[in-house]
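ok trying this again, last paste got cut off
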Amino acid sequence: MPITIPAIAGQWLGHFRYGPEYGKLEGEKVVFSFIIEALPDGQFRGKCYELEGIGANSSVSFIRGYTEQRAIHFVKEYTTEYQIDEDGTVMESDLANPSILTYDGEFDYRINSYTGQWEIEMNVGPTIHGDLLEFCTGSWEMTKINNNQ
């Protein structure tokens, strides 16, 4: 029986983990749920609900991206943004310079899930040479709920 990639439209459950730039929080995970709508030409859009975990954002975020064969790429945008201190304290931050959060990955047939890496580019403020940017990374995984292709 051939293995196929589930249609992107529908509900997905997954998590992301913090990378080494987060210090003591490295490896901690946040559980999320995506509700995705398919668009033409492999594109999609949807909503993300972060359900639990250190630094989970309680506001709905929006995703948009595309799939191409096994590959997936999307951007997540928050309506409210938070920063996490190394001790896990969460503070609301200014959205004047919103962060850019990108997810890249591919479908793994062995576990029937998308897996990959994420990166956030944070504008931490102006300097005399332009804006100071900081990059943080991590991993992620998501599996379709009710895998009705």
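PB: full thing came through this time. The chain has a mean pLDDT of 86.
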